[in-house]
Write a structure and sequence with these properties.
coiled coil, globular, ATP binding, 23 helices, alpha/beta, 5-stranded parallel β-sheet, NB-ARC domain-containing protein
Length: about 750
């Protein structure tokens, strides 16, 4: 019998902990349900922050203009957040309907889900960043169907897909079709998944190793140091870039020997599964690199005839007298696709037998003194086509293309403009050329500001519906993140001085980057005093002191500005200099909606009270990494004049402000002056991160304390900052507390 109490004691030991846990879950049911809702809200705020940051980082391009995409871990985390959101919503519905008997069980489930939420919130910090460079992607070449050469293409394709050959040399005389074949293969490679990178670079003559290194990196959407002309150092950097993943590198039109090591090309091997293809007229170049040589032979007679008829038009066969002459002319093309295409094109539409016979004799005369298979032979065939243009203006239009670098993609609008300037287009066709400009975007790169000022004066410029002008040095000029359709980009220009920059009246998007002697937008002039300018980005201009100087000029040309981005301006001290300007002057930035300032190290006050009165349409303010920033809104002039009255509350109104983000501002003490309150009923999100000296958040007044009506969240980092804030009204903290998320 003595064993019974012992058994009872052991039984109690076994059941007591679970019973106590069950009772705790029942007792803390409401608390667990509230914690679960709070944790879910915190997670969704973090999710919104991540998505906003992702959108910004993937849309804004880096200084290297590289495209970005979300990391895989970020994508998975967002998917996990979506999944757990659905689960928690189901749990919350059950909690709200819980009976007394199910509270313990559901309370336990809520406690478990809280732990899961804590874990996923921790996983969402991403200290190494959210994005990575997108894999390099190439665009397919525009190509026509191959006539013949199919067996050569299949042979090269077999070497690329198989493991037998790693380096391939495609050889043949000029105009035989080497490049055309490889363009077809390049397009096929883009459709497959065997290689991570398909890289095409045209080498040409003479070989410039440094240029080749940069071109390979650019084709991979990577970047080497522009100012370093040391082949060996650049070789090491390129080697490092290319070792990431499997590549197929196609080097077209190689004329001279080189070593892979000197350029920085990792040798293709069976182990790294990479491939190299070069096209060259010189077999010796291919052999020097150790390539498997594939020779491209001229087309057969039948293949040549088919290609010729495709280009000249098969209806020519309806003239029986021309068949014999046509066959003889095809023979003179020697099976070279390039010669066939240009000669057939020059004869298209000609039906007179005498003209065909004369053209045949002329072609034979040109070729009789040339060596078979030589460069002179293909040149004479091309010149035959050129001479048949007859009209000297058309010939000069053709020759003007020689002003562009080899393999440069010439823009049609550039040519039209050049032909107009040189008088190659007759007056009757001038309007036709101008009409063409209305249909497409005109893009051009100008040497300096004088070119821009002269160009803006042309009448035809006013007719353009879309344009993008780049002045000076802006890398990847036509790949900027553009907001509007009429864009001017100024890079490394010398501004200020005697000559102002003249902007067209309809410019909408203005980029100013690394410009010397640029002190303010007042250095810029618009003939009509006003423009359609909506977006302005100013970056890395060391001498700019204020964005707009109202003392020296009017600000009317920025009256329509909606976006203003300021980045790395070390001497910027004020956004707008309005000292001494009459109060009746029109408000500056009256249409501004988005304002971003980053790394402006000498800025101490963002907006004066006088300037703030014109910012009534402002929707978003982002200020970050400004080491001396002390206040966001302040009085112009001596602060003591306004600080004496400590009893009257000053109201600062921003009626449309929805987002305010302040980050890494180590000297920031206040958002607005003492006893000031910002009235912004539209405010949805407030983010304050790494602002250790900030004393208050002036969003709640002393009379009937209440938060902004649209407020959704206040994000504070670090969390100690929230406890250190001072409040004029002790109830203000309690009013804002439900919206606060601490990190």
């Amino acid at each position: 019998m003595a064993e019974i109490p012992i058994l009872i004691l052991e039984f109690i030991k076994c059941v007591a902990p679970p019973t106590r846990s069950c009772v705790d879950n029942h007792r803390n049911f409401k608390e667990n349900a509230k914690d679960l809702e709070d944790k879910l809200s915190t997670l969704n705020c973090r999710k919104q922050d991540v998505e906003t940051q992702l959108q910004t980082e993937t849309q804004l391009q880096t200084e290297d203009y590289l495209e970005k995409e979300a990391k895989e871990e970020v994508k998975k985390w967002l998917q996990d957040v979506e999944k757990i959101n659905a689960e928690i919503q189901g749990v919350l519905e059950r909690l709200h309907k819980a009976s007394c008997f199910s509270r313990a069980r559901l309370g336990k489930l809520a406690h478990k889900k809280i732990d899961e939420l804590n874990a996923i919130i921790q996983q969402g910090s991403f200290p190494q960043g959210l994005v990575v460079n997108k894999p390099a992607t190439a665009l397919p070449f525009p190509v026509e169907n191959l006539e013949g050469e199919v067996s050569v293409k299949e042979r090269i394709w077999g070497y690329l897909i198989g493991n037998e050959v790693q380096m391939i040399g495609v050889c043949g005389i000029g105009g035989v079709g080497k490049t055309t074949i490889m363009k077809h293969i390049h397009n096929e490679l883009l459709k497959g998944s065997k290689f991570d990178k398909v890289i095409w670079v045209t080498v040409s003559y003479p070989l410039n190793v440094v240029r080749l290194q940069h071109e390979i990196a650019k084709a991979m959407k990577e970047k080497l140091l522009e100012d370093d002309h040391d082949e060996q150092r650049q070789s090491s950097r390129l080697m490092h870039l290319m070792e990431k993943g499997k590549y197929v590198l196609i080097l077209d039109d190689v004329w001279e020997r080189f070593t892979l090591e000197s350029v920085g090309i990792p040798p293709p091997t069976l182990e790294n599964e990479c491939k190299l293809v070069i096209t060259s007229r010189e077999v010796d170049v291919c052999n020097f690199l150790g390539c498997k040589v594939v020779k491209v032979q001229p087309l057969s007679k039948q293949e040549s005839l088919n290609l010729f008829l495709d280009k000249v038009g098969r209806e020519i066969l309806q003239i029986p007298e021309l068949e014999a002459i046509l066959n003889l002319m095809v023979d003179e093309c020697a099976g070279l696709p390039l010669a066939i295409v240009v000669i057939a094109g020059s004869m298209k539409g000609v039906t007179d037998v005498h003209q065909w016979r004369h053209a045949l004799n002329e072609l034979r005369d040109r070729l009789k003194d040339t060596t078979k298979g030589s460069g002179d032979e293909i040149f004479e065939r091309l010149k035959f086509s050129y001479d048949r243009l007859q009209d000297s203006n058309i010939q000069n239009c053709f020759l003007s293309c020689a002003l562009y670098a080899e393999d440069y993609q010439i823009r049609r609008d550039d040519l039209v403009e050049q032909w107009i300037d040189e008088g190659l287009i007759e007056e009757s066709r001038r309007e036709e050329a101008r009409g063409l400009k209305k249909l497409e975007t005109f893009q051009a790169q100008l040497y300096d500001l004088q070119d821009l000022n002269n160009y803006v004066k042309f009448d035809h410029f006013k007719r353009l519906s879309n344009y993008q002008l780049v002045v000076g040095q802006v890398e990847d000029t036509f790949d900027l993140y553009i907001h509007f359709s009429k864009v001017i980009s100024l890079g490394e220009c010398e501004m200020g001085g005697e000559d102002s920059v003249v902007l067209p009246d309809d410019v909408e998007d203005l980029w100013i980057h690394q410009c010397r002697k640029f002190r303010s937008l007042s250095d810029i002039y618009s003939p009509q005093k006003t423009t359609e300018l909506k977006f302005c980005s100013i970056s890395e201009c060391e001498e700019i002191e204020c964005v707009v100087d109202m003392v020296t000029s009017s600000s009317s040309f920025i009256n329509n500005l909606e976006y203003l981005w300021l980045y790395k301006l070390p001497n910027l001290s004020v956004v707008a200099n309005v000292e001494g300007v009459e109060a009746t002057s029109p408000h500056i930035f009256s249409n501004l909606k988005f304002f971003v300032m980053d790394e402006c190290s000498t800025m101490k006050r963002l907006f004066s009270f006088e300037l703030l009165q014109g910012l009534q349409n402002l929707e978003q303010i982002t200020v970050q990494n400004c080491q001396q920033m002390k206040e966001i809104i302040g009085w112009e002039g001596e602060e003591e004049n306004h600080a004496a009255d400590t009893t009257t509350t000053t109201t600062f109104t921003l009626p449309k402000l929805t987002h305010l983000e302040l980050e890494n501002l180590p000297e920031l003490k206040r958002i607005c002056p003492t006893r000031g309150v910002i009235v912004c009923d539209s405010l949805q999100e407030l983010e304050i991160k790494k602002c250790p000296k900030l004393k208050s958040i002036p969003l709640v007044g002393n009379v009937r304390p209440s938060p902004p009506a649209a407020l959704k969240s206040i994000s504070i980092k670090p969390k100690e900052l929230w406890e250190s804030l001072e409040w004029d009204d002790p109830n203000a903290k309690n009013v804002l507390q439900p919206f606060v998320h601490l990190f």
